[in-house]
Amino acid sequence: MARFDGFVPGRHQIDAFGAGGFRFADMSHRGSILATPAGIRIWPVTAFAGITRESLQQVLDEAEGIDFLLIGTGHDIAFIPASLREAFREAGITIEGMATGAAARTYNVLVGEDRRVAAALIAVD
After folding, report:
1. Which Pfam families does the entry mention (predicted)?
2. How far is it, in rounded angstroms, from Cα 115 to Cα 93?
3. Would you say residue 2 lies in a domain?
4. Residue 1 lies in a domain
């Protein structure tokens, strides 16, 4: 399995998650990831408090191709602040927050249906 060097272009399903990371596109990565239609990249967020408009700017940059953003908030579900929801609503993107495992599984289903989805996933052990 190849090592992930920071960005892999294209849409890829998440093959596995846990142990502090993710497997996708025949690669593995320890840490959080941001998956958009353009590709999967390292996402430096390690806790819910680190989720900001700035940390999600790549999603806004690709807003024309994204309808839904799934945020994997770690082990527990956390409430996405109204200010963040509003910023994305203005860009035409609906945000759903859920535990990382549920977010990764939902992302895979939506990618399989060729839906316009992105996922910001905090790594879990």
Report:
1. DUF498 (PF04430)
2. 13
3. no
4. no
